[in-house]
Amino acid sequence: MVKVDIDYSVYLVTGREFLPPGKDYYESLEESLQGGVTLVQVREKDADTGEFIEVARRTKDVCDRYNVPVLINDRIDVHLAVGTAGIHIGQTDCPIPLARQLVGPDAIIGISIGKVEEAHKAIDQGADYVGIGAVWPTGSKDVRNKKMLGPEGVGEILDILGGTGIKSVAIGGIHLPNLAQLLHASISPISANHLDGIAIISDIVASETPKEAARALRDLVGSFKRVRKTLPDPMAIFGIPTKRDLTVDGLVTGVMELIRVVKRETPLVHQMTNTVVVNDSANVTLAIGASPIMSTHPRDVADLSPAIGALLINFGTISDKEGMLVAGRQANVNRKPIVFDPVAIGATSYRRETSVDLLSHWQPTIIKGNAAEIGAMAKSTEVASRGVDSVGSGFSDPGAVVKALARKRACIIVLTGESDYISDGSVVLKASNGHSYLGSITGSGCMTGTLIGCFAAAARLDYLSKKEAYEDLSQLVQGDMLLAALSGILVYNVAAEVAAERPDVKGPGTFRAALIDELYNLTPETVKERAKITMLS
Ligand SMILES: Cc1ncc(COP(=O)(O)OP(=O)(O)O)c(N)n1
Ligand SMILES: Cc1ncsc1CCOP(=O)(O)O
């Protein structure tokens, strides 16, 4: 026997107890194979040995007709009796070295891991693949006393596996709506290693239509893997290499175009923001040519999601967490950009916990913050916070901070301050426009987030208008989000410069009104004339 070459893309773990009432197990299995399941594990928690062998034998007969390999959960004796391709074992089952002696060199051995140390051990002991989990809570296994990994935790483990040749699947609570988030947000921050597939029980087994369920998962995983394989830069967050000319002049031309797109398309920008700035944020949105909607109720935000161009989540007064969870999840499902503004995240433990909770439910497209906020997200101690403000002069190497965090979180990072730094994990931009009056009005950072949201919506529409179809399932969000972030920053700061120079502006009060006027009157040409951008890498 030679070791079977396995496609881990959609790995069905069986569970007869989860079938819909009246659905036959073998019928459901066959339908899921027709839908594109690529690997099957027979998992029988209550069957005695004879029944387990019978189910495994019949499962293998069905899978053989589709050329899909079968593995056995836990029971080496059942694997040997039926002659399957290998086994899957847990941390408390037979240790890998002993299992290897029993199953021989050509059988596949997979092991469950949920910690970095377990990943190291799996490498040392020669596992063929690992099942990483549980990613999220699940009703299919009792994982109540275990720490949920979330996509970020999966990424930390993938980093260790990078370059070892060990394959990986994630397991636990994975369903079509959170799959794109998982695939993208778990790309490992250092080695750019990504999942080889997903292991699924209920999304397929509990479905009345397992063929359709399996097909939808397979399409998404397949498309993700295909695009990752062809990327010139494996760290690229937005998979399709954009047509953007990556020079300062090219970027400025792109910003000018996005200003026109906002005015032409008037995208609806859903903002869940704080009570201090809600009116200013709505006015800034209108001034630039977009359309604001400030809804917070969980039911309302879910209904709104298909219609919006982008979502801004700013947790400044942190009172709408339920709505933020729902709105973000729906935005991921509908592939709408999310701008996350973690206001004063470092100031209280409640804010830190809320951020962890939100980000394990949905994947942001752009995170914007001041030095204290970005420092807290990056777990850096270099910059402290006082309420919503940063204390101290900032990071010694802000470009490195934004780049590393962009890689870690698989999204665009914007660090605001006297100069602003923007990175997609590959490119780092420094933008140095603005005026000191911006520090004298409340909600300045929040309004920047709003504008970035307007341009994120525009960037997505711009991209979609240039493609015939919405065919690329591998992308969580489409469009040039680095350019969107830069546009929001530039437009706000250039308008501030123009406003501050007006003879009628005498201080923060008149400046605030003038700022809205100058955003309203701002032309792409003025932005081009004044833009101060440097490309750091
Ligand atoms: C692919 C995959 N990953 C993880 C598991 C869980 O295995 P284990 O920890 O042994 O728990 P049980 O499945 O035995 O309850 C798995 N089965 N498959
Ligand atoms: C077996 C197992 N191991 C970790 S989570 C899990 C259950 C996965 O089931 P589901 O896909 O229904 O969440």
UniProtKB/TrEMBL annotation:
Give the family per the record. Answer: In the C-terminal section; belongs to the Thz kinase family.
Pathway-wise, it operates in:
Cofactor biosynthesis; thiamine diphosphate biosynthesis; thiamine phosphate from 4-amino-2-methyl-5-diphosphomethylpyrimidine and 4-methyl-5-(2-phosphoethyl)-thiazole: step 1/1; Cofactor biosynthesis; thiamine diphosphate biosynthesis; 4-methyl-5-(2-phosphoethyl)-thiazole from 5-(2-hydroxyethyl)-4-methylthiazole: step 1/1
Q: Name one GO molecular function term.
A: thiamine-phosphate diphosphorylase activity
Q: What is this protein called?
A: Hydroxyethylthiazole kinase
Q: Where along the sequence do coiled-coil regions lie? A: none
CDD domains assigned to the protein according to its UniProt record, in alphabetical order: THZ_kinase, TMP_TenI
Q: Which reaction does it catalyse?
A: 2-(2-carboxy-4-methylthiazol-5-yl)ethyl phosphate + 4-amino-2-methyl-5-(diphosphooxymethyl)pyrimidine + 2 H(+) = thiamine phosphate + CO2 + diphosphate; 4-methyl-5-(2-phosphooxyethyl)-thiazole + 4-amino-2-methyl-5-(diphosphooxymethyl)pyrimidine + H(+) = thiamine phosphate + diphosphate; 5-(2-hydroxyethyl)-4-methylthiazole + ATP = 4-methyl-5-(2-phosphooxyethyl)-thiazole + ADP + H(+); 2-[(2R,5Z)-2-carboxy-4-methylthiazol-5(2H)-ylidene]ethyl phosphate + 4-amino-2-methyl-5-(diphosphooxymethyl)pyrimidine + 2 H(+) = thiamine phosphate + CO2 + diphosphate
Give the domain of life.
Eukaryota
Read off the SUPFAM superfamilies from this record: Ribokinase-like (SSF53613), Thiamin phosphate synthase (SSF51391)
Ranked from the top, the taxonomy reads: Eukaryota, Fungi, Dikarya, Basidiomycota, Agaricomycotina
State the UniProt keywords alphabetically.
ATP-binding, Kinase, Magnesium, Metal-binding, Nucleotide-binding, Thiamine biosynthesis, Transferase
One of the protein's GO biological processes: thiamine biosynthetic process
Required co-factors: Mg(2+)
What role is this protein assigned?
Condenses 4-methyl-5-(beta-hydroxyethyl)thiazole monophosphate (THZ-P) and 2-methyl-4-amino-5-hydroxymethyl pyrimidine pyrophosphate (HMP-PP) to form thiamine monophosphate (TMP).
Q: Which residues form the Thiamine phosphate synthase/TenI domain?
A: 10-203
Q: Which organism is it from?
A: Kwoniella newhampshirensis
Pfam family membership, one: HK
Q: Do you know which InterPro entries this protein is assigned to?
A: Aldolase_TIM, Hyethyz_kinase, Ribokinase-like, ThiamineP_synth_sf, ThiamineP_synth_TenI, TMP_synthase
| Gene Ontology CC, one term | cytoplasm
